[in-house]
Every structure is written in C-alpha cells, then in structure tokens.
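Sequence in, structure out. Go.
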Amino acid sequence: MKDLIEKINAEFETFKTESESLIEKGTKAAGPRARKSTLELEKLLKEFRKVSVEESKK
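Output:
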C-alpha cells in the first residue's frame, strides 16, 4: 500500500508540474501531458480504494 501511495504522490507532482506549465507559461504541449496524468491518477486512486477496502475487511 505504501508503494501505491508513493506512485499516487509522484503522479500528482507530475500533474501539478504540467498544469502549472500550461497555465503560467502557456506551454500548449503540457495540456495533453496533464490530461494523461489525470487518467493515470484516476487508475491509481481506484486501485487505492480497492486495496483500502480489502485492508479494512481484515
């Protein structure tokens, strides 16, 4: 579970960097990278929910 949380934090940092680049610097290529990162975050957060529910049943 700790590894999963580290992946979530790393992906969130990627999203944060890319979205700031898009908004503040106007880097158009950062938009698709930020959106890709949100899809990966969605996948990781669903996995976290699944693992969390399993852990709570123990």
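Check: The chain has a mean pLDDT of 96. The longest helix spans residues 30-56.
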